Amino acid sequence: MNRLFGAYVVVDFSAAEGRKTGESSVWIGVMKRDVRFRLSFETHNPATRAAAMVQLRTVLADLHKRGDRVLLGVNFALGFPRGLNAKLGLKDWAGMWDFLGKNVVDKPDNTNNRFQVAAKINRLTTDEAWPFWGGPKSAAQKWLSTLKPDSFGGFPEYRLTEDAARDRVKKALAPKSLWQMHGAGVVGGQAMLGIVAIKALVDSMAGKAKVWPFETGFAALDADGFGEVNTIVAEVFPPLFDGPAETGEVKDAAAVRLTATALAEMDDRGELGALFGAPKGLSEADTAIALSEEGWMLGV
């Protein structure tokens, strides 16, 4: 069988302050095949994002040493809603990644300045306490409110892929807005911190890692189309692969297991490559938005 990947690594990221394991912390799920091509799964739950990235680099190095191509799925957005880049004077997703890389500080103990960065972006784009919102009272200021704004002005509340995903999952599992920085299940800070971490990883791989769809375009993958690339990074949305947790299994651990399992099984059936193609029904204009700034969730 001509599988695309030898291993599937899924990262459930976290914007936790301070060392944390268990629920709402970083989980890394690794699905790989043995010499008889039987699938086996393992999880890692480092206490900090810094430790998680060290662990992830080790996992990838071991898989590449075996000769495996790797699909690296991350559960955070790789781009922000359309219009933000232009307001910041940034050309595209890469400009946003550079901006975040220069502004976000995420220390080894998990303390970080994500609320200050959100406030800075608000100041530079609207000079108001939006589009980003939410934070502890200690982080509240002129450009960042603890409360949701009445309007986001010209910014959409959700990315195109989040609008599309909403029709695919139960209402309770629908994606949240990236503008929200604080509260249960928020994803804004997670995306900021995650992008900075994954940028450093991709940069260190000297062209052997490509980010879908930004660097690859929308095109179905086949086993002959990788060249020197040994890792494809893609945003994943675990609720698409929802299922029961095992006895005593933390929700986030179940999410990475179920997602990695689904991706591996699709690859076994020869169905995975098609997911990298253009989403059905997406207009030419919206396709350009997804490719240049917003990104897309694999499988939506």
Task: Label this structure with key terms.
300 residues, alpha/beta, six-stranded mixed beta sheet, 8 helices, 32% helix
Folded structure, characterized:
With 300 residues, this protein is of the alpha/beta class. It has a domain at 7-77 and 198-294. Helix content is 32%, strand content 11%. It has helices at residues 49-65, 84-87, 93-103, 114-125, 160-166, 188-204, 251-268, 284-294, and strands at residues 7-12, 27-33, 39-44, 70-74, 209-211, 231-235. The protein has a six-stranded mixed β-sheet, sandwiched between helices. The chain is globular. The relative contact order is 0.19. The model has no long low-confidence stretch (mean pLDDT 95).
Order of helices and strands: EEEHEHHHHHEEHH
End-to-end C-alpha gap:
26 Å
Total helices: the number is 8
Order of strands, widest sheet: 3-2-1-4-6-5
Would you tell me the overall average pLDDT? 95
Structural class, by secondary structure, is: alpha/beta
The Rg value, from CA coordinates, equals: 19 Å
- Uncertain segments: none
What is the number of beta strands?
6
Shape: globular
Q: Biggest sheet: strands, sense, closure?
A: 6 strands, mixed
Share of helix among residues?
Answer: 25-40%
Percent in strands: 5-15%
